[in-house]
Amino acid sequence: MKKIATVDAIGHVICHDITRIIKDVVKDVAFKKGHVVKKEDIPVLLSIGKEHLYVWEKKEGMLHENEAAEILYEICNNENVKPSEVKEGKIEVIADIDGLFRVDVKKLDMINELDEIMIATRHTNYPVKKGEILAGTRVIPLIIEKEKLEKAQKIAGDMPIMELLPYKKMKAGIVTTGSEVYHGRIKDTFTPVVINKLNQYEISVCDHKIVNDETEMIINAISELKKNGADLIVCTGGMSVDPDDLTPSSIRKSGAKIICYGAPVLPGAMFLLGYFEDGTPIMGLPGCVMYSNATIFDLVLPRIAAGISVTKSDISKMGHGGLCLRCTKCTYPRCGFGKGV
């Protein structure tokens, strides 16, 4: 920091806020710390009594906060995002599409362990809308050693630490199992819920089959949906461990490799996920999906919609944060449910 005449300050960076006070009219910050002085600023500065300024003295190996913020943004920058205007060493990362937001949490933690810089993000695997803020980057001091930003770049490596994946254009087939629905004894209230959730991720329903509690009928329905080009198959009904609930065993017999039957999430413990050899996912949904606002289906579906292959390990990690608190007014996804991973 050095003191110079205001008339010689063009192009220099102010090191402190400068307040303007006009009695009974205004009291505010006329120029913020970090402002780069322009020619038109000189008369204003002189009018508020600033004949001298304390400015940042450019030194080798040091960066202004805005220069450093640009570097932090590039560590985050990837397809389908855009930056806010850089201001006071801060840049926000903004979604340019609807999609699934994912973060390399390990690298993020390592970068935030460095002094005087920070990156704050939404939770990883978070479904977001275009225009929403995904992350904020900030440099703490006005000037910072370039070496610290180089360390952050080294941690990030060749790939940005976050990504925003667009949802795939998918067609879903639905199999509703249950003699009570098959014989028309009750109205099917499950399928409309599933269709609504699928539509949130641009997944259309290409076919819907209602079957009795019979293994062969369930298998045939699944096979027909797959043969007719369904990119995703969703089965409802018959998902418990009762002897006459045959959906899990029928899914297995249909040729799908079961990733999990049972998950550490409430609601949603009886969830089933499998994949066919060609990568087509199939899900068995427990009854809670029909009447609970947020379940494991809401945690898994955005990943499936974005083309992510969900593993057994992914499901196991959902136990941390996998307890819904059943709030009187549900605010999901703006809550802690499912945000452990």
Instruction: Please report the distance between the alpha carbons of the first and last residues.
Output: 44 Å
Total discrete domains:
3
Tally of alpha and pi helices:
11
State mean pLDDT (0 to 100 scale).
Answer: 92
The strands making up the biggest β-sheet line up spatially as 15-14-16-19-18-17
In the CATH scheme, the class of the largest domain would be Alpha Beta
Radius of gyration: 28 Å
Percent range for helical residues? 25-40%
Overall 3D geometry?
elongated
SSE class:
alpha+beta
- For the record, the CATH architecture of the largest domain stands as 3-Layer(aba) Sandwich
CATH homologous superfamily identity of the largest domain: MoaB/Mog-like domain
Give the ordered list of helices and strands.
EEEHEEHEEEHEEEEHEEHHEHEHEEEHHH
Let me know the number of strands: 19
Report on the biggest sheet.
Answer: 6 strands, mixed
Give the strand content.
25-35%
In quaternary terms, these chains amount to: single chain
CATH fold-level assignment of the largest domain: Molybdenum Cofactor Biosythetic Enzyme, Chain A
Protein name: Molybdopterin molybdenumtransferase
Function: Catalyzes the insertion of molybdate into adenylated molybdopterin with the concomitant release of AMP.
Domain MoaB/Mog: 173-306
EC number: 2.10.1.1
